[in-house]
Amino acid sequence: MTPDTLLPALLASDPSRPRVTFYDDARGERIELSGRVLGNWVAKAANWLQDECGAEPGSTVRLDLPPTHWRTLYWALAIWAVGATVSGDDDADVVISMTAGDLVEPEASLAKSEIASAADQFTVYLPVDLSRPAIDRPAPVSYRDLIRPVDAASPRTVLEGTQPEVLRTAADVLAADGSVILFAHEDTSRRAGRLQDEGVTAAV
């Protein structure tokens, strides 16, 4: 499986199953996205990238967003849907941020994004080139090589680390028909109970 085919596979498997769960303890927020809802957000973001920014294979997009925010994940999936590269370059063609950039996302999970009115269906204009990088930092990883095998069926995994690490592991887990848990400003004293409640099988 490659990143651009990941989301269609999730929707074909079970569109109603939770695929992303996000906690922000500083704001007292919890958000859960099914495969269908995640797909809607990815389509909106991909349509915005393709139609408003002209993003295509070869374009670079910088995600100046927290590594474990749910918006970071749907933007990465949208970037891969259009065949572009998640870039760590300050001079990327497009910048998505929570402060300043081509598009500014709200930090609050439940606040409305600028892309909310975009279409829920996405059709890519140009085919994805599997030899191009899906992520370019710290070292380029191609579309063909991004997703690694996971030794579990339908894993439910907590993600932590740098943005490239989180995105790559999220792709691995989702490709294995699993789901991911993300934390921001976590109250660590609550983690054990949450892992049990969420049925987590691994923390990465």
UniProtKB/TrEMBL annotation:
It comes from the Bacteria. This is Uncharacterized protein (TIGR03089 family).
